[in-house]
Amino acid sequence: MDELNLGQVQIAERPTVITVFGVLDVVFGSMGLMSIPIRILAKALRHHTSEMTAEYKVWSLFLSVLTVGFAIWLVFLGIGLLNFRKWARRGSIVYASVRIIWFFMAWGINIIMVFLGWLNLSKGGWGLFFLGIAIGSIGLIYPVLLLIFMQTEKVKRAFTAVGG
């Protein structure tokens, strides 16, 4: 059995889930950062399928900046989990909760913006709009799993043993 020596505390076995989510956090966060050129291209393509008002352009810019912030936060948490830092578990729970809440808020705001006329969609634009919602919904799976697994008894006990 592997032993993890963390200062004065020894844990009989490091939960695999901590390593798995640490690696996934770094990978997904890095992918989020690397998606910046794709976001720029998507904005250029969207120009042909919709007419964006100034309000929607501000919203879109805000989302892009927020996405970069979430990606950096996720990489930071992943490194913390891989180094078995107690703040990384708590931060992961906060991150997952914020992402879940943010998903529903952003989804609702986007729908409201369409109905307010801040984004006028053509035929092709509606398809892309709903495709974006569907793809975004798939992205909700990770924060839900992260939230669940960071609160399992095995993970709690492991972090409690190191003072977390």
Summary of the model, kept short:
With 164 residues, the protein is mostly helical.
Q: What percentage of amino acids are in beta strands?
A: 5-15%
Q: Can you count the beta strands?
A: 4
Q: Which structural class matches the secondary elements? A: mainly alpha
| Low-pLDDT residue spans | none
- Helix percent reads over 70%
SSE succession: EEHHEHHEHHH
Kindly report the average pLDDT value.
82
Radius of gyration: 19 Å
Number of helices: 7
> What is the domain total for the residues?
1
Question: How would you sum up this structure, described in words?
Answer:
With about 160 residues, this protein is mainly alpha-helical. It has one domain. The protein has a two-stranded antiparallel sheet with strand order 1-2. Strands 3-4 form a two-stranded antiparallel sheet. Helix 1 runs antiparallel to helix 3. The model has no long low-confidence stretch (mean pLDDT about 80).
Short descriptors:
two-stranded antiparallel ribbon; 4 strands; 77% helix; elongated
List the helices and strands and how they pair.
Elements: E1 4-6, E2 9-11, H1 16-34, H2 36-49, E3 50-52, H3 54-82, H4 86-116, E4 119-121, H5 123-138, H6 141-149, H7 153-161
